[in-house]
Design goal:
heterodimer, A: 329 residues, mainly alpha, B: alpha+beta, ten-stranded mixed beta sheet, four-stranded antiparallel beta sheet, 16 helices
Chain lengths: 329, 569
């Protein structure tokens, strides 16, 4: 019950934050440009009544505050508003794109987390060994590397691999082939061939940061008195590492990963663009380019809810793992 | 099309991370060696002409997902949508790569003016021409296509254009609907631009009145029908449109078994997708980087051609200072178009020369009549001649001292606002160059971006502005909307020009049309209202084993002849 109350308090705090942020973003996007600019530039000119009809459909003939109010009341009733693309349903679009993004974000986060824990623990246990130096330098290399650059490099590597193999194993655009292979095995290979490069990109970027975090966390724990005591008591080294050190050292990383989820989500914008996955990142760019206020707002609403939820999850995890947090709050 | 090609020069890219940009540049065969001809060359109708074999799949990269399936609708009139729907819709007339408008031989056997007054045009449809469901393509389809674009027939329809259709008095069919007679209220010179795409009247009839079928049904429904060589077999939102042969196609071809439009929203990703053979054709907006990178990919052919879009610098003559023709002439005399070209598109389209006309492009003909005439150079404009510009000013009583120009009344010429499109680097570069060139005349330009070019232009919210105009292969209507008193955005009104434009729209004699439009152009040059700079090039890149893929820098675009595409024999 203590945790439920804590979670409810956090959610209530999030409501005004969401309200203010949506208002500011709506103003910013609405004032950023005219979604019908392209229509007004055409030669020969588009008939004025056609432009007027589009303005009315999108609510552009209303003051911006009225538009925000209409959007807000619509959202409360489950209506995300009309898109600049007249046939697009923003809710459906968000739903399908969220699935595409989550497909590789979740896989990437899982792999990155496992790798980060392994590398972080080994680096800490073998501090200042050649292995530690190797992992450290590799980690810093990926930390310093812009994701779009890494993605481009991986694409070139994929093309080289295909050339060596004499057939297309790795794909550089899209999440699947337009004309899928006829067999089940072929389809699985096709999906994997499309998934591998964007996943590796996200894995390497996140693994680098998380492994450094895990290493320092593990080092802290290894230097603590209770671990020294466990060792002094004659417990086996493996038991000390696994039961005493690792379990404690994992707690901060779990919180970091939960908090980082939204950053990974946002970072997928670059990865999706380079690999042409039609996910949330691609939708954001497309909506901004088209000055599609309602689509941008829907994206940001999802992102904001994700931020709130994952911050809440991080707090709950922390509170669940460390009772002192609950008492303090 | 399932072949793999060695890609040796890119192999080095994996050797060192830091060297990637340099290596990519090294992959190219060098920028600026893609010559577009003698300053301008339209696409060629016979470029990459080849005998092709039947079979295969081709993936054409498109930058946008289709959000409106009706390309005659205002929001559906998008280049990418036209590329996808060209192989599905029947066309009476097709704009060719060489800027001519030709009848579509697959659909019509004859198109001609049968009476001058009232102007009457007859289209003879092939007896075998049918929609994919077997319904004949007839005058009914012409009639529906006319009605939805004529504000009197359908006031609530939302077409992209009404040009010409609002001049039609009647569309009637005879000979079982296979002869279509279009009678105009008044003579309409650019009639050849009409009926480039036809919509199926029999399907429209199943979906309410014309407004409902046009604004709602055709816009939102993926066509399961076809009147062209291909039929849409699958649409995956945001991913692709796949087409197979239309079994009821009545023309030659198609040769490909499948035609796929692959949606890649970032054109830069087309380079690796081409290298990996995931796409085989791409028509991106050319930039220096993109042209170089595409040229560096093995077994890919790139082709550039100057198009019907041209960049120009316009002056708002309603501005008190710019109302003086002497100042306008001096400004345009000081601007060096070649310097602008050299710093912008000349880097990848070598040979591009300054453009000398606002209605016709070099080499363009109108029904066999040579149309292009340079009216800009003879007027002394656009050559960056500072001495001549200063002389114009001093002769008119202006004084240049301490870097500030003073008008004949002794008042300093105020700083002028030069507008350019937000996010358009080429136009920003152009504006900076013009700013520097005019500084030497003592004229200060303040550069201001606009994120709504249409509004800025239409409301005259500029002193000087650089932007592009997309001409039709027959420019009469565009000239009327740009230079006529009713449409002009520059504030320049000239009754003589109005008269010439009206006459040009009312005559069917091509020589007279050319003469009249060139008179308009000469007057605009003399009055220094707008300064054409250059034609924008169009680019196509395709796998080198493909035949009949070529640049079509008109509204139809590269997919205008998709039925001819295939793998070379």
């Amino acid at each position: 019950m203590e945790i439920v109350g804590f979670a409810l308090r956090r959610l209530l705090v999030a409501i005004p934050v969401l309200f203010v942020s949506t208002f500011l973003i709506f103003l910013a996007v609405a004032k950023s440009g005219d979604p019908l600019a392209e229509l007004r530039e055409r030669q020969p000119p588009v008939p004025p009544h056609t432009i007027a009809a589009e303005e009315a459909r999108l609510g552009l003939d209303q003051p911006v505050l009225q538009r925000y109010w209409d959007w807000l009341t619509g959202v409360v009733q489950g209506d995300l508003g009309p898109s600049v693309d007249r046939n697009a349903d923003i809710g459906m679009e968000i739903g399908s794109r969220l699935g595409i993004t989550m497909r590789f974000v979740l896989i990437a986060m899982l792999i990155a987390a496992v790798l980060a824990i392994l590398v972080g623990v080994v680096s800490a246990v073998r501090q200042y060994s050649w292995l530690d130096y190797l992992f450290t330098s590799t980690g810093f290399l990926f930390l310093a590397m812009p994701s779009f650059w890494l993605a481009v490099l991986l694409k070139q590597g994929g093309i080289e691999l295909n050339t060596l193999a004499g057939s297309t194993l790795i794909y550089t655009v899209g999440d699947s082939s337009v004309i899928p292979p006829p067999t089940l095995g072929g389809r699985i290979a096709d999906l994997a061939g499309h998934l591998v490069l964007p996943t590796i990109t996200l894995v390497l970027i996140n693994f680098a940061a998380w492994s450094r975090f895990q290493r320092s966390s593990m080092l802290d724990v290894l230097g603590s008195d209770y671990v020294k005591l466990a060792t002094a008591k004659g417990l086996r080294r493996r038991t000390v590492l696994r039961k005493y050190a690792l379990r404690t050292a994992l707690t901060p990383l779990v919180t970091v990963i939960a908090l980082d989820f939204t950053a990974v989500f946002a970072g997928a914008v670059v990865t999706e663009t380079v690999f042409q996955w039609r996910g949330m990142g691609d939708y954001l760019l497309e909506s901004i380019n088209g000055r599609d206020v309602n689509a941008v707002m829907a994206w940001l609403l999802v992102a904001a809810v994700a931020v709130v939820l994952f911050n809440l999850l991080a707090d709950i995890l922390y509170a669940a793992l460390d009772p002192r947090i609950r008492r303090v709050r | 099309m399932s072949h793999r090609n060695p890609h040796r020069r890119l192999r080095a890219a994996t050797a060192g991370f830091a060297l990637l940009p340099l290596l990519l540049a090294a992959c190219s065969t060098g920028g600026g060696d893609e010559n577009v001809g003698d300053g301008i060359k339209a696409g060629q109708v016979d470029a990459n002409q080849a005998k092709v074999k039947d079979g295969g799949t081709l993936a054409y990269s498109i930058e946008v997902d289709v959000k409106n399936w009706n390309i005659l609708h205002a929001t559906g009139d998008v280049f990418g949508y036209r590329q996808i729907l060209n192989p599905v819709l029947p066309h009476a007339m097709i704009s060719q790569p060489d800027f001519t408008m030709a009848k579509n031989d697959a659909l019509v056997t004859e198109v001609k003016v049968v009476k001058d007054s009232p102007q009457t045009v007859e289209y003879r449809i092939r007896p075998e021409a049918t929609w994919s469901d077997g319904t004949p393509i007839t005058a009914d389809d012409f009639k529906y296509t006319w009605q939805v674009q004529d504000p009197q027939q359908c006031p609530t329809c939302e077409p992209a254009t009404q040009a010409g259709y609002d001049q039609v008095a009647s569309v009637t069919g005879s000979d079982n609907g296979k002869t279509v007679t279009v009678e105009f209220k008044n003579t309409y010179q650019p009639w050849r631009l009409m009926f480039p795409h036809l919509l199926p009247a029999h399907i429209a009839a199943q979906h309410g009145d014309p407004a409902n079928s046009f604004n709602n049904y055709f816009t939102s429904t993926v066509p399961t029908w076809s009147g062209g060589p291909f039929l849409i077999s699958q649409y995956v939102p945001n991913q692709s449109v796949t087409m197979t042969k239309n079994p009821k196609w009545y023309g030659d071809g198609p040769h490909l078994d499948q035609l796929v439009f692959r949606i890649l929203t970032d054109e830069r990703q087309a380079v690796t997708a081409m290298a990996n053979n995931e796409i085989q054709v791409v028509v991106p907006r050319p930039t220096l980087d993109l042209v170089q990178q595409l040229k560096g990919v093995s077994n890919v052919t790139t082709s550039l051609a100057s198009g019907l879009v041209y960049e120009h610098l316009d002056i708002n003559t309603a501005h008190p200072a710019l109302a003086d023709v002497a100042l306008r002439k001096a400004i345009f005399t000081a601007v060096s178009r070649q310097a602008i070209i050299d710093k912008t598109i000349g880097q990848f389209a070598a040979g591009t020369k300054p453009l000398g006309n606002r209605n016709f492009m070099p080499g363009q003909t109108l029904e066999g009549v040579d149309a292009y005439a340079d009216t800009v150079t003879p007027a002394g404009l656009g050559d960056g001649n500072l001495d001549a510009a200063k002389k114009i000013l001093t002769d008119a009583g202006y004084v240049l001292g301490d870097g500030q120009l003073t008008d004949p009344k002794g008042k300093p010429v105020p700083a002028l606002r030069m507008r350019y499109s937000k996010g358009n680097q080429v136009r920003l570069d152009t504006s900076v160059l013009v700013q520097n060139q005019l500084k030497q005349l003592g004229i200060t330009l303040q550069l201001q971006e606009t994120d709504s070019l249409g509004t800025t232009v239409n409301t005259g919210d500029f002193d000087l502005i650089v932007f592009g105009t997309n001409l039709d292969v027959i420019p009469t209507a565009t000239a009327q909307s740009v230079f006529g008193s009713k449409g002009t955005h520059t504030g320049y009104r000239d009754k003589e020009i109005d008269g010439w434009l009206t006459d040009a729209a009312r005559t069917l004699d091509p020589q007279q049309v050319v003469n009249l439009l060139n008179k308009v152009d000469t007057r605009i040059s003399e009055q220094a209202v707008t300064l054409p700079i250059y034609q924008t090039p169009s680019l196509v890149a395709y796998r080198s084993d493909l035949g009949n893929v070529r640049v079509n820098p008109t509204r139809f675009g590269t997919s205008y002849n998709a039925q001819d595409w295939g793998v070379k024999e």
